[in-house]
Amino acid sequence: MLSVNLRHLEPHEIRLQGELPVEELDLNLDDEMIRAERPLHYDMRVEKIYHAILAQGRLQISLECQCVRCLKSFQKELVLEHWTLHLPLEGEGKVAVDNDCVDLTPFVREDILLEFPQHPLCKPDCGGLKKISQKNREENKSAWAELNKLKL
Questions:
Q1: Are 95 and 103 spatial neighbours (Cβ–Cβ below 8 Å)?
Q2: Domain range holding 32?
Q3: Please, are residues 57 and 91 in contact by the beta-carbon 8 Å criterion?
């Protein structure tokens, strides 16, 4: 869990760096073309501004993908270079606070999922699966054609 203690934010901002295991991100991916198997790397500054929390930094996760055109496996680095999160501590849309701590994990999860490729491609100009040439088709048909010639 990626959480921040509000008491630590009182005197000044804090810096959070580390890894969040993919199991804790709880991505619930039902897509066989994208898998997240490595931890999320984060590097962020978190501060309390008025009655809100402001987190800014960088998020990075490595994805194991399968191209939707040619079915080739490839790795994609997903990087949110200038990630920003603003969470109100008061009012109608306030964030949940538990023992002076705010869990940032659900917000990180949501932003990561929004950046996932909808149709992963190994390269932008991927030509897809190689088409079977006419010669190969004729060779495949020839076995049946030879059987059809038998007079039984």
A1: no
A2: 3-148
A3: no
Mean pLDDT value across residues 104-130: 87
Q: Say what the pLDDT of residue 75 is.
A: 92
Residue that is written with structure tokens 């149709």 in the block: 119
139, two tokens: 């060779």
Q: How many domains does the chain have?
A: 1
- Return the closest-CA partner of residue 88 out of 61, 54, 138, 133: 54
> Residue 151 in 3-state DSSP?
coil
DSSP string for 105-145: HHHHHHHHHHHS-SS--SSTT---SPPPPHHHHHHHHHHHH
Q: 30: which 2 tokens?
A: 């039902």
Do 105 and 25 contact (CB within 8 A), yes or no?
yes
Q: How far apart are CA 65 and CA 136, in angstroms?
A: 30
Q: What pTM was computed for the model?
A: 0.74
In DSSP notation, 64-107 reads EEE-TTT--EEEEEEEEEEEEEEEESSSTTPPP-BTTEEE-HHH
